[in-house]
Amino acid sequence: SGSATIPSLKHRLQRNVAAVAWKPLCASILAVACQSCVLVWHLDPTSLSTRPSSGCAQVLSYPGHSPVTSLAWAPSGELLLSASPVDTAMLVWDVSTENCVQLQWFGGGGVTYLAWSPDGSKVLAATPSAVFRVWEAQMWTCERWPTIKGRCQVGRGLFPPTQGGYRRGGADGVFLKLPREMQGQVGGSKTASIVADLSETTFETLYGEERIGGEVHSMVWDPTGERLAVILRGFFSPPPAPKIPLPAGRRGTVIAVFRTRNSPIFELLPCGCLRGERGARPQLIAFHPCFGKGALLTV
Amino acid sequence: ILDSFNDLYTSYVIFCTLLMSVVILVISIFNAEFYTVVPSIPCSRLALIGKIIHPQQVIHSVVHAVMGMLVAWCAAVMTKGKFQFLAVPCTPPESLDDAVPQMCLNEYHLFFLLSGAFMGYSYSLLYLINNMNYLPFPIIQQYKYLRFRRSLPLLIKHSCVESLYFVRNFCAAYYFFGYIPKVWISTTMDLHIDRKLHPLDTLTGLLDISLFYHAWLCGVFLLITWYIAWLLFKIYATETHHFPIQPTFAEETDQCLPKILNSNPPLIIKFLALQDLMLLSQYSPVRRQEVFSLSQPGGHPHNWTAVSRECLSLLSDLTQRLITQQEAAAANGRAKQPAGELKGSPQAPGAVVQEDMSFQSPRSNIPRASMSSLVKSSLMPLKTSPGSDVGSPFSSPALNCKMGILDVSSPWHGSVQSPRVMRRGPKLWTSGSDLQMNGSHHESFPVLSAARVGSEAVQPSFIYTWLQNKQEQIKNFLSKRVLIMYFFSKHPEASIQAVFSDAQMHMWALEGLSHLVAASFTEDQFGVVQTTLPAILNTLLTLQEVVDRHFKLPHVSSKPPRISGSLVDTSYKTLRFALRASLKTALYRITTVFGEHLNAVQVSTEHKKRLQQFLEYKE
User: Fold this and answer.
1) Interface pTM (ipTM) of the complex?
2) Is A78 in Cβ contact with B619 (below 8 Å)?
3) Cys-Cys link to B586, which of B69, B338, B510, B605 (CB 3.0-4.6 A)?
4) Please, are residues A29 and A81 in contact by the beta-carbon 8 Å criterion?
């Protein structure tokens, strides 16, 4: 925002911060997932103070719901979902009245990852086991989707920015495409299909053999729905100079960029790989939300 | 177990079951009669007492007590132990000269019946105090069965704990007052009190575990059934209802959404209609199209006009109400007003009264009028020191007198105390009973002397002003009486909640309107929304300013303490925060969707500046 002051937020309950999320459609509310609660900071975007007082933080806690590891704001900005891997209930908070609704299910462990679809109609909740749930956000019914390949763990899930099916990346590098559903109902777990297999492959390039592929660490879609970037952790692919010997078994990461199209049929075409310097590992990637001239990716 | 199954078929049990269903029916009728979607919040202790002794509430309590007694009777009869009958044969006397066996009062049975009545009455009292007749609308929509299942464990746990409290309270009450019903029943029904057994209204009698357990169990059963009836009523009443926008059949015209919003339906229908508006604006493109459509053949956007007009009038109504409140709060520090109407000012009664009391005892012979002015002038500099604060209204003034110091427990959020705030006096029923206390005393004497001189030319107005001044005098005198203050003082938090008690309607109107406007950016084919855009923005921005100013008043921005995991819903206490958040989100939604195009909309310059702040995410 152009100001030089960077406030730092400290609170005595703010321990083991696992996730941080800004409220959409607002310039001043930040939710922080802590060990025992969720802290919602109300900040003044024009203030110059570097240390907002802990009176600005609202504490949302619920017995049995700790540690909180994932948070997701609804795109319409009214509800906050919080989930913990040891709690078999997801909490839907109305932040201003501090009321929460528990959405409980039986068995299957807690929730490791939450994602809302951009139109606010579905929520993806990934569990530590090989099952994930998709909730539809109008009547809050959920559907269990067992993964096709049994053993794999759900790493990440993503909804495309425009209407349509959504995708899920597994730990062994399989992309599942889940088809378009009827409005208001979640269905079609039987008709899910594998869209891309990102497990390890080797292929020949000008510089020799290259091995790419492996575990999907995270993926992001750009806001227009045309580019998808995936961080893949796999084995180290040889550098352009083939004479340097490779230490065996070293894992490296690469960002694969795909061109995607959602209509008339879903298409995923690889269009390049990004590799950083040797030893550098990308941790977070994000597309610029309002870039006018295409897609801008920050690593 | 076989025995108990056999027992189930006896006529006793069937009769009892029928009686229980009658009880539940009566309870449900009461739930349906008494519900409200806008909670009534008593602002002062007197209002609370008034609510309790209101005839409607008295009937409610009496009927609940009778129902409780019926349930307890059924339970006692079905238990078949020592509780079964009211009159049992007495234990025969040890002496050989055998008198005719007499009928004695079975005190256990009586205890049971009375405990049932007590529980029924306590349930009714708690119903009133916790505003259980208020129907909160859920934050997310869920199927009814899921909602019921979700609340069931909490309900059972709550009933068990509450029953424990009730039994404990009843044991205490019986210990002190148990002899009254005992004596009354035994004289009316000509039963004798058994001398051999322990009477129950002694400590040894009451320490009977089995009695305690049975009473507790009966209480749990009673509470569970009544709470389930209440919960089911709540779930069914707050279910979303689908209102059509375009009537497809002629008889549906009265039920369609624009018509309902514009007429004056019962409040629950209006709430349901607004909730439906909120849901359709978010989730249903088909119905949104109907809202944006034009009528045939005239080409008028009737639906949109009706919806937007109603939402905007609701919001301007709220703006007006808040402005009136703020003006009243501001005016209380200035000259008194002639009309003595109730001013709902969210201000604690001043510590002025408390200081008066502390000074009055040693110097009671000094005439009060001059004394109060002395006190006032000496205390002014003391009170304007920052950090000192007016006492919370519910701390007992007597205690403050004994401490002799200003009560510094501040429920305020660390806001800066302006001197004008300090000088505000007790807010009873006029705005005049404050700083001008001494002023009024001095004024009343010249007025009275003028009366004695007697200028007949101004007789009518003179009598009026004389009466007014007398009224002022009486009120000032009474306001110094601590007991009166105790009852009449307005609790600030409650007054603030009362202003925002129907804010749920406004929140839904805001969300529905802003979602429709945001959707119209892509979905509105005829441009019906664009013509009303200036009006919408003006209303929203004005409301935003007024709400921001309102939150600067004392007490408004402090959150009441939250008890998690309780059965009763207290969301009406924090509705103002939800309203503020929803207003901001609504404005951001519109500015985010329209972006720079908003600069072309005709709004006033200050509003333009505020919109710019929103566009730059600086609000």
Assistant:
1) 0.79
2) no
3) B510
4) no
CATH number, domain of A102, equals 2.130.10.10
Q: Would A17 be classed as within a structural domain?
A: yes
Q: Using one digit for the tens of pLDDT, what is the confidence trace for A107-133?
A: 767 888 888 887 778 888 888 777 778
Strand pairing partners for A170? Answer: A154
The pTM for the full model equals 0.74
User: Is residue A25 included in any domain, yes or no?
Assistant: yes
Q: Cβ–Cβ of B564/A62 closer than 8 Å?
A: yes
| Cβ proximity of B507 and B515 under 8 Å | no
B143 inside 8 A of chain A by CB: yes
Greatest Cα pair distance, chain A, in angstroms, is 64
Collect all residues of chain A within an 8 Å Cβ-Cβ radius of residue B138: 101
What is the total count of domains within chain A?
A: 1
Segment-wise mean pLDDT, segments of 10 residues, chain B, 619 residues: 67 79 84 79 80 85 88 78 62 49 72 88 88 83 87 91 91 84 78 65 72 88 90 88 82 80 86 89 88 83 89 92 87 49 38 38 41 41 38 38 38 40 41 38 43 50 87 81 76 82 90 92 87 92 92 82 74 86 91 87 88 83
Residues 6+ apart with CB under 8 A from A107: A88
A79 contacts B140? CB cut-off 8 A: yes
CB-based contact A96 B414, cutoff 8 Å: no
What is the spatial distance between Cα B588 and Cα B595, in angstroms, rounded to a whole number?
A: 10
Could A25 and B564 be called an inter-chain contact, meaning their C-beta atoms sit closer than 8 Å? no
Token pair for B189: 């029904």
Query: Which string of b and e fits A223-245 if b means at least 16 CB within 10 Å?
Result: bebbbbbbbbbbbbbbeeeeeee
Give the gap in angstroms from C-alpha B619 to the nearest C-alpha of chain A. 7
Distance between alpha carbon B454 and the CA centroid of its chain, in Å? 51
> By residue range, what is the domain housing residue A100?
10-143
